[in-house]
Amino acid sequence: MATLLEVKGLKTEFHTQDGIVHAVNGVSFTVDEGETLGLVGESGCGKSVSMLSVMRLIPMPPGKIASGEVLFQGRDLLKVDDEEIRSVRGNKIAMVFQDPMTSLNPVLTIGTQIGEALELHLGMTKEQARKRSVDLLKMVGIPEAENRLDDYPHQFSGGMRQRVMIAMALSCSPQLLIADEPTTALDVTIQAQITDIVKRLKRELGMAIIWITHDLGVIAGLADRINVMYAGFIIESASNKELFANPLHPYTLGLLGSIPRLDEAHKAKLTPIEGLPPDLIEMPKGCPFYDRCHYRTEKCGTANPALELGNVRHWVACWNWQSVQKQHAAAKSS
Amino acid sequence: MTQTTLSEFQRAEDSSRMRSPWLQIVRRIVKNKFALVGILVIFLIVFVALFANVLAPYGYDAQNLDAKEQPPSSAHWLGTDALGRDMLSRLIFGARSAVFVVLLVTTVNLVLGVPLGAIAGYYGGWVDALIMRIVEILFAFPGLLFVFMIAATVKPVILGWARANGLADLARSGYLDYAVVIIALGFVGWGGLARFVRDQVMAVKVRDFVLGAFAVGVPTWKVIYRHILPNALAPIIVLLSAGMGFIALSEGYLSYLGIGLQPPNPSWGNMMAENAGRYWRTFPQSIWLVWVPALILTSIVLAFAFLGDALNEALNPEISD
Q1: Contact assignment for A91 to B207 by CB distance below 8 Å
Q2: What is the predicted pLDDT for the residue at B321?
Q3: ipTM of the complex model
Q4: Reported pTM
Q5: Does A117 lie at the interface with B, CB-CB under 8 angstroms?
Q6: 3-state secondary structure of A12
Q7: Is A165 exposed, middle or buried (0-12, 13-18, 19+ CB in 10 A)?
Q8: How far is Cα A212 from Cα A57, in angstroms, rounded to an integer?
Q9: Chain B within 8 Å of A121 (Cβ-Cβ)?
Q10: pLDDT-derived band of residue B135, with 50, 70 and 90 as boundaries?
Q11: CA–CA separation, B137 and B191 (whole Å)
């Protein structure tokens, strides 16, 4: 499959009164056409910031994309002019945000908001956009779509609003959909509905997806590949199956240990990851996970490991991944 | 039983479907008695202003020196002034002056205040600092003092310019007085609006749907006017409505003090000033000449205040509860 998006050495920082916050620290990854990439990590690890950087939606100032390249279909989006990046946003790359209750404009009708991208990017007239909006609302499963175009966001429930957001995002048939925790603000049953809709639409439309989440459970059923982020670094990257079967980074192990499982034979205790992520203003010299790691050695405190190949198409940024793998395997079999 | 509950439910659904936000606002305003009185007064004044030439029995500057300082009669319902001009006609044409000034000054305030405030609030930084310092200069002068200063300074400049450009007739006609009043009030009044719009824009621009609009590829200017400003529209409308009463009153002040509209231009302010000087000599018919314009001006200020209050309650229902 051809590469759709290639991010190289992306660094984003925020210049605040307290100092420079290093939110994203040299992130590199690729997304193939039609691929679903999961981006996992806890709050503040740089998942959203790295995706907003790809779209060049970081508020500047205080934000600043310090270095890196974002090659989308071969063009560096960080270098194109404003007009060109606008023609990509919502058209080639679309985004769905976390909170459907606040992501729609309360004073504009749903029809106006869906139609905006259609008029902007596809040059549709108001009537054409209206017609297409009805189809889009039907596509995401909103009943009585014709009657609901003139409704305002407050007349929709949270789950319905997230469907509207998805309809908006897919209006121009983007090649890449960035979903920033789209199910986090919803009930579990609605979460399942929304993920099902996205899965179905992906089958029908074939776009690539980057799905940001802090919930490994959600991503397990969706992603082809998973990147795990910590303190602005990608610390592990593997295919979905491989990551769950053979996690190599202590942080990934920690994440997996902290989700409840239904298929566990005995009721295993959930093990939280102790401690807090490092201060992003004064980044540690060594591995950012050093303070919280059960497998740390002296070397970890002095130098930050780069991603290296640990298995077939499985990269990990840890000095001790081999011993982590052995210990984990031993613990599992006992 | 189940049947009725269901149909009731259906009806509730339908009525909520029908309710556009603007319709709800109109309904809330109509419920307010004070607001209705205010709207009635405003409509009346605007109607009189529009049809002044039909409604007025005499011209606003038609003098009849044989009928000076007359008490109310069937020929002159509100009497005549020292030059024998019909008071009712002057009051009716005065409405035209007031409405004209209020509309144009409000337009100048809007055209200057909303874009400058939006730019300051959206971009922040030195742009914001620059615009807000200018606004603070406007605010540094007490009340209408700055307006008086501008009116007094601008007037000779405009008259001089008109004479120098062969417009001596225009300079003599008194029409330029309107320009002086509108410039003075327009250039001072936008500051409050700009500051207000700035604060509103700052509050709205950080909301999620603004980022959402950018993510769809909407250009910045369009995000400001289509996504941010409409969210600040309700309080802006309230502010404008309350401000209109103040503009009418200010025109009255200026004209009363002789730096606004000059006689024979019909202005409630200059009518009061002219006739107040002869108040005791021509008592009691001077009561009509001074108190009627004063009462009209007061009722307009009150009308806009009532309307502003009602709009505030209708547009921000959570505050009024």
Answers
A1: no
A2: 39
A3: 0.84
A4: 0.80
A5: yes
A6: strand
A7: buried
A8: 16
A9: yes
A10: very high
A11: 9
